[in-house]
Amino acid sequence: MQTWDTTWKPVPWDTARRARAIGLACRLDRHLEEAAAAATRAEARLAGTLRQEVRQAVAASPGVEELFAKLAALHEQLAYMPRLPLPAGIAGLLRDLLGPAWDGDVVVAGVPELPWPSLERVPVRPVALIPLAEARNPLMWPLVAVQGAVASGLLSRRDALDEALGAALAFARAEALFVHDEPAARGWWQAGERRLPRPQNGVDGTPWELAAMLASGILVSGYRRGGQVDPEAPIYQQLAVVRDEPAQAADILTAGWIYWYNRTAAQLVELADGLRAQDGAGDRWSRMRALVDSLDDLLCRSLDVAAIHRFYAAEGAIG
For residue 271, what is the enclosing H or E element? Predict the structure, then answer.
């Protein structure tokens, strides 16, 4: 299972900031690609033009602030593209994190503004906002949960989210502020490092185990429990020894951040450095997209499966 070094060896902060901007570019490109599939001919042409500009912006290798400004301007054009449904997992995570007191009346809306709204304000209406290009990035969904708690009046639950989500929420806050308030962003990033659970006797049953599973490209929806299996025992006795225990959303998201900072961020920046070259630039961009898309999809699917597993486990206990 452990196909990589299960220790905290993140990229430097400056590399993390650049990877954040490049990751946004990949996610914006994906949104444009999917919107074009549901678009009219004119809208599809607009999407194609915008996608080309996204890639050119990354290939130009500007500073982080300049790249973000360009991406923000392109992201605003999503207002003229077909609306795509938000992933169902966002609402599922809200129910998971905010508990049964949450009545589901909060509207989660995708917006064309790329900067995240302030998490400190109290919304006038029960609305939580998410930049459209971030919708498929589960690592940032904790910020929607914070807004949802405030918007639904669950202020005490909002305060509990900080403890429940720990490093996952701290890292998401850091990434949301990485351009507009870098000192605060770096402070949250360091807070995320301090809040990471440290494996004591091995990594089993921790986000580090899940991060190792991500390295193998498999779902991180649960932990495998059980002792030694007697191969001579009847099959049902063998199966009874081993069981899967659903992972908590915080563990899944923390594992995603560990994997992002320990591996994906560096790979993404390295690939971006070669985009200037004419030969192989298309292949590099495809590999960058694959890195980001695969992690986003694996985490999203893991959250869904873990929630279903917990639901049936609870029903079984009740019954």
Answer: helix 265-273
Half-sphere exposure of 111 (CA within 13 A, CB side): 14
Whose tokens are 């949450």? That residue is: 102
Q: Which residues of 197-222 are buried (b: 16+ CB within 10 A; e: fewer)?
A: bebeeebebbbbbbbbbbbeeebbbb
CA distance 21 to 63: 10
Reply yes or no on whether the pLDDT at 1 is more than 60. no
How far apart CA 221 and CA 241 sit, in angstroms, is: 19
Contact 111, 71 (CB under 8 A): no
Cβ neighbours of residue 156 closer than 8 Å, sequence gap 6 or more: none
Give 230: exposed, middle or buried? Use CB within 10 Å, 0-12, 13-18, 19+: exposed
pLDDT attached to residue 239: 42
**Total length of the chain:** 319
pTM for the model: 0.89
